[in-house]
Amino acid sequence: MDGVSLVAKRGYDTQEAAEQYSRCRPTWSREVIDIVIDKLNLSKDPENCNTNYDIVELGAGTGMATMKMLEALDENVRFLATEPVSAFLAKLKTTIPHVDTLQCSASDIKLPDNCVKAVVAFQCVHWFATQEAFREIYRVLVPGGAFVFVWNVRNVSVPWLKTFDDMMYEPRPPELRDIHRWKEPLAALGPSFFTEAKEEIHKETKELRLRGDRQTILDYVSSMSYISCLPPPERERLLGKFLQFLNTHPDVKGKQMISIPFNTEIYWCYKVS
Fold first, then answer.
1. Closest CA to 176 of 33, 6, 3
2. Which residues of 165-192 are buried (b: 16+ CB within 10 A; e: fewer)?
3. Is the pTM of this model over 0.85?
């Protein structure tokens, strides 16, 4: 798994972690998927390029976004799901056995030059926000090809969730604390690589809510790589702090079911021809 964070290797590369991730993370709304597909600009045919795939998904994980994309795309679209973590890729293959897959990292995409019409990444660019990875994405894209990347982010305008969010960031490694850290290395490549990235914020909907009892919320917390990789005693101590918060904060302490709302951030740019 060259090019993969040690935190991801330790936190995600087990069957249990893959199952928990699939079960506990929020899904993607059809409206968001339709926006992503529109930004991929698949109707534009590249000149003098023999493409291997229409879409390559980086960091496809357990296939949560992959499934949503395939449901919305024409069946003739050539789609490749890539994932560097073995356990996640195994879960994806089990869930979506008909999709093409490849185990690789974003910094070493095992495809020829200029062979992909579009690259998409859901909830993962913070793992590979380096010039090396962005150069590799540039390499495989056809001229004018799209790079679209997306995150579901907790809606911290909800007062109790802001405190909860702060608690989740305390144990997070510094290199993973800012999902927007891609901006500097992407811009540093210069204007000859990609167009300036555009942004769209998709506000929360019912589909973008994680709803469940306290154990559901704790399982969601545990699905974070930097928490799942902790030694069991340390992880249980940390989860105990979250449980105490849920049991004592006035906005949630009396509720049997708790909702965590999310917004979706969509970014896109295009390879300069």
1. 6
2. eeebeeeeeeebeebebbeebbeeeeee
3. yes
Tell me the CA end-to-end span of the chain in Å, nearest whole number: 31
Q: In this predicted structure, what is the pLDDT of residue 27?
A: 87
Mean pLDDT per block of 10 residues along the chain (273 residues) reads 57 80 89 95 75 95 97 96 95 97 96 96 93 97 96 93 91 77 94 95 73 94 88 93 97 94 94 91
Q: What confidence score (pLDDT) does residue 184 get?
A: 94
Q: What is the dihedral of CA 171, 123, 11, 62, to 10 degrees?
A: 160
What pLDDT score does 196 carry?
A: 95
Q: Are strands 79-82 and 53-58 parallel, antiparallel or unpaired?
A: parallel
Q: What is the 3-state secondary structure (H, E, C) of the chain?
A: CCCCCHHHHHHHCCHHHHHHHHHHCCCCCHHHHHHHHHHHCCCCCCCCCCCCEEEEEECCCCCHHHHHHHHHCCCCCCEEEECCCHHHHHHHHHHCCCCEEECCCCCCCCCCCCCEEEEEEECCHHHCCCHHHHHHHHHHEEEEEEEEEEEEEECCCCHHHHHHHHHHHCCCCHHHCCHHHHHHHHHHCCCCCECCCEEEEECCCHHHEEEECHHHHHHHHHCCHHHHCCCHHHHHHHHHHHHHHHHHCCCCCCCCCEEEEEEEEEEEEEECC
